[in-house]
Amino acid sequence: MKxxxxxxxxxxxxxxxxxxxxxxGDLAATLSWKPETDLYLESSGDxxxxxxxxxxxxxxxxxxxxxxxxWPDGEVKNVLKEG
Length: 83
Known about the structure:
This protein is 10% helix and 33% strand. The protein is globular, with a radius of gyration of 12 Å. By secondary structure, it is mostly beta strands.
């Protein structure tokens, strides 16, 4: 999939029309994304995210949830503290 829009740093819309909220601790990994970046979406067993977006070029992964959802209460702070 390709990026349709990534105007807000924490939300990305893909060319299939899906919109995803990027985990705050993973934002730095998205700085190199361009419209031609190939991304793959996979389900995640992570405790804070339902899915991961994987950059096909470098295999970097970012945790995401559907754009309309909210992060689990307290989990963002816990995960960021753990590193």
